[in-house]
Design goal:
The chain is globular and about 55 Å long. 32% of the residues lie in helices and 11% in strands. By secondary structure, the chain is an alpha/beta fold. The protein contains six helices and seven strands. A hairpin with a 3-residue loop joins strand 6 (239-240) and strand 7. This is GDSL lipase. InterPro entries: GDSL (IPR001087), GLIP1-5/GLL25 (IPR044552).
Length: 246
Amino acid sequence: MGSFFFFFFFFFVLLGIGAAGSGFPGIQLPGIPSSENRFGFFIFGDSYVDAGNNNYINTTGDFLANYPPYGQTFFLTPTGRFSDGRIIPDFLAEYANLPLIQPYLDPKNNLYLNGVNFASGGGGALAESHQGQAIGLQTQMKFFKRVKNSLTKRLGNARTQSFFSNSVFLFNFGGNDYLNPFDISYDIFKTLDAQEQFADMVIGNITIALKTFEQLAKEMWSGDADIVKPYNFKQLFQYDPFLGSQ
């Protein structure tokens, strides 16, 4: 089975990276010096991991980060990241000796040999979450399929399969799905049944996406995807060093 690492962020999640053996996997692509060639880092999600895709869509100021003070402490200018500096994928890319992973919608981004960032501030697992103002999970998956087809045409099936089998995929979804209804009405969560049904719907959409992606992975290379277990804030803070687990 190829060394395929699948990172899934549910709601707000802490990321941990693992790798087979020591260090990160790497492959050699045609026409790319080995010193510059690594593996792909593909990012899906919302504002926590958006590197600037919303700069290229027609949306409102609430879903944009292209004005000060965004970016002021690292880039010294707004980049579209919802941060005053770098975001989680930037640090991961640095750790893996990769350049910053560029937004898919950036017209200058057409090589994809280091990976692609598909994330969109405001995006959710549900199509209804900030619909028309952000890029949701299903659309981001469609963008990924376009990238896969583009790489297959350029590199051929064998090299593309090798590339993806060594790649890292990061997903961060759920937060906007739970927050978006409060922009409409608080009444939706009045009862426990309503809360549980809505949570099940969000989880169901993410599960479908994961299964779809896993099937796509099987088509791209031999073997199954290794899915790293997610950790969310509830899990992180349910342990008290003095009292033990809560």
